[in-house]
Amino acid sequence: MQKAPKKIMIDVFTDWCGWCKKMDAETFSNPEIAKYVNELNYAVKFNAEQKADITFQGKTFKYVDQGNGKGYHELAAALLSTSFPSLLFHI
Fold first, then answer.
1. What is the pLDDT of residues 63-80, one digit of tens each?
2. How far apart are alpha carbons 86 and 35 in whole angstroms?
3. Entry pTM
4. Positive or negative CA dihedral for 48, 53, 56, 58?
5. CA distance linking residue 12 with residue 4, whole number of Å
6. Helix/strand/coil (H, E, C) string of the chain?
7. How far apart are CA 55 and CA 53, in angstroms?
8. Angstrom distances, CA of residue 44 to CA of 26, 65, 79
């Protein structure tokens, strides 16, 4: 980021999201779209249900277990107010 500043594009997804899979298969796998996205952004995929801690802007976000194998990541909850897939841009 320091040597080549760009926006960060975050693709927030879940493993069970059908539209997320469709976007990967039909949009992000398109070479022209991938080239365009990568020229302007640092592209990041973020699983909204991943269990690893993430430190972002000085705060550590964790996975919240809701039982029965379900849960969410605190960073996803902090970033989103919508459903999946979601694209976020951080300048």
1. 999 988 889 999 998 888
2. 20
3. 0.78
4. positive
5. 23
6. CCCCCCEEEEEEECCCCHHHHHHHHHHHCCHHHHHHHHHHEEEEEEECCCCCCEEECCEEECEEEEECCEEEEHHHHHHCCCCCCEEEEEC
7. 7
8. 17, 24, 14
